[in-house]
Amino acid sequence: MKLYYSPGACSLSPHIALHEAGLAFTPVLASTKSHKLQDGTDYYTINPLGYVPLLELDDGTRLREGPAIVQYIADLAPHKNLAPANGTLARYRLQEWLTFIGTELHKGFAPLFRPTTPEDYKGIARQQLQSRLQWVDSQLDGKEWLMGEHFSVADGYLFTVCNWSKSVGVDLSTFQHLQAYLARVGARPAVQTALKAEGLLK
């Protein structure tokens, strides 16, 4: 398999999942600025949407969208408990978290990265994110991971998105449970490996 990624982008989530699952894969750097691979290949010829992540299977099949990719990865290594079994209520709870992270948090950060976003709107976006993250903080009270006792692919996704907070001025310092949780995720060997591979950790 190949994972097309850009350092620190949302592709860090499947990068973490692949290491957690213990699966063999080849990471392929795809710049989100130049939209070119290191060998000069136009990334749009691989993903017409131009963004990461993209997972290319050994038979050439390509899978887009982080939440779909991480569930696929989890299902390749069911013994790792990265996702509950398909058809169970717990699996829908995982999808509930992945959807929330993708639509309420991931997309919430997007305006803060755009240089064309008006400053007054950025303030509104930060307030909305603070409100959503305060709710996440309350959900982590008394829990080690989002799904309870098992680390899941939703944890890798939340960690990835929350990592953007420092660079765009979203303050997490008042969220005690979230802060402790992010430290737990960041200390996992697979997470450390993914961070180092992307040059995000020395």
Automatic annotation (TrEMBL):
Keywords: Transferase. It is an enzyme of class 2 (transferase). Its EC number is 2.5.1.18. SUPFAM superfamilies: GST C-terminal domain-like (SSF47616), Thioredoxin-like (SSF52833). InterPro entries: Glutathione-S-Trfase_C-like (IPR010987), Glutathione-S-Trfase_C_sf (IPR036282), Glutathione_S-Trfase (IPR040079), Glutathione_S-Trfase_N (IPR004045), GST_C (IPR004046), Thioredoxin-like_sf (IPR036249). Residues 87-202 form the GST C-terminal domain. GO terms for molecular function: glutathione transferase activity. Residues 1-81 form the GST N-terminal domain. PANTHER family: GLUTATHIONE S-TRANSFERASE GSTA, GLUTATHIONE S-TRANSFERASE-RELATED. This is Glutathione S-transferase. It comes from Paracidovorax wautersii. The lineage of its organism: Bacteria, Pseudomonadati, Pseudomonadota, Betaproteobacteria, Burkholderiales.
